[in-house]
Amino acid sequence: MSALAACGGDGSDDGPAPSAARAGHLLLVNGDNSVVNCTVGRDGDITTCEGGFVDGLDGPGSIEVSGSRAFVSDLSDHAIAVCQLGAGGQLSACASTPDDSFVAPLGMHIAEGRLFVARSDDAVAVCATSGAAPSDCVTSSAGGLLRGPTSVAVHERTLYVANQHDQSIVSCRLDGDFAPTSCTRQAGDGVFDGPTGLAYEAGRLYVTNVGDDSITVCQASAIGHVSDCRRFTFEGQLSNPTDIALNGDRAYVTNLGDNTLATCRLDGDGGIAGCEAGEAGTLFMYPSGVAFSPSAS
Fold first, then answer.
1. Phi and psi for 277 in degrees, rounded to 5?
2. pLDDT at residue 8 greater than cutoff 90
3. Of the candidates 116, 115, 80, which has an alpha carbon nearest to the alpha carbon of residue 95?
4. pTM for the complete prediction?
5. pLDDT tens digits for 124-179?
6. Which whole-number Å values give the CA distances from 149 to 104, 106, 131, 201, in the listed order?
7. Type and span of the H or E element at 3
8. Other Cβ atoms closer than 10 A to 31
């Protein structure tokens, strides 16, 4: 059911093995303005899902969780909605304020008290998250290297951006004010095909590709160099994969193409051992963004 292509070296991966999955909640945003809340067991498998419309959300594109809050990109109003996140994964009290810093905001990531947002005008925004809404935003074009940025990931002062229009990953170091600097474009020896979703874990970068319905896994060095990329395809299980969220040795991928959610297993060296797409009646309707929120205990 799977096909593996190694490139960019011998495919070896010196990063640590993925940790065990945790119980929690998986949150998905749909193209019909609804939100789905799925319960995840201790083994990382999804047990139940429920969904509905949440007041204050309009045109959600992606979602990011930080503590007791969820941030949802508002494509229609060029804003970021901030919602309260309940212990059971429910969203409430969503409020957004349009800001010139958000131009059709796409993928997001929160790290070190900052919100990083990929903008559709070939830029990224970096904002403080200490207040009720993102504030003190600064924008960057990453030295002009951004070409259709769709998602971002951050680890230890390194910013990664998926470039959908030129099939690449841009990595930047973050200075003392979290502004991107020393940016480089990396094509990964041709293993990216419409890179859209992006996640970092245990020294590896996970990228979903809508061009060929695949997931690329690359080693990521401490300074952001991407190497030893491997592309994984699973026939019938990935269809226009738009976003990815990680939970230990599990990965969850939104399939925009067939309104499903794929649960993937990571092997001992961080590769994808297998994916299985699941339906939830009419709850998944053009799912575009996903985030995992672990339980407190």
1. -80, 140
2. no
3. 80
4. 0.92
5. 999 999 989 999 999 999 999 999 999 999 999 999 999 999 999 999 999 999 99
6. 11, 8, 26, 20
7. strand 2-6
8. 17
Nearest residue to 242 via CA among 266, 274, 203, 215: 215
- As a whole number, mean pLDDT of residues 101-108 equals 91
Burial status of residue 201 (CB atoms within 10 A of its CB: 0-12, 13-18, 19 or more)? buried
State the Cα–Cα distance between residues 97 and 145, nearest whole angstrom: 29
The whole-number pLDDT of residue 297 equals: 65
Spatial distance between the Cα atoms of 249 and 100, rounded to a whole number of angstroms: 38
* Cα within 13 Å of Cα(30), Cβ side: 21
The continuous run of DSSP H or E covering 287 comes out as strand 287-294
Domains, the chain, with CATH or none: 2-294 (2.130.10.10)
The vertex-154 CA angle with 188 and 187, nearest 5°, equals: 10
Does residue 1 register a pLDDT over 70? no
Burial (Cβ within 10 Å: 0-12, 13-18, ≥19) of residue 58: middle
- Provide the mean pLDDT of the chain: 91
Q: Rounded to an integer, what distance in angstroms lies between the CA atom of residue 269 and that of residue 222? A: 18
Alpha-carbon gap, residue 225 to 248, rounded angstroms:
23
Distances, alpha carbon 182 to alpha carbons 121, 185, 192, in Å: 20, 10, 22
One-letter identity of residue 201: E
**In which element (H, E) is residue 37 found?**
strand 34-40
Amino acid at 178: F
Q: What percent of the chain has pLDDT over 70?
A: 95
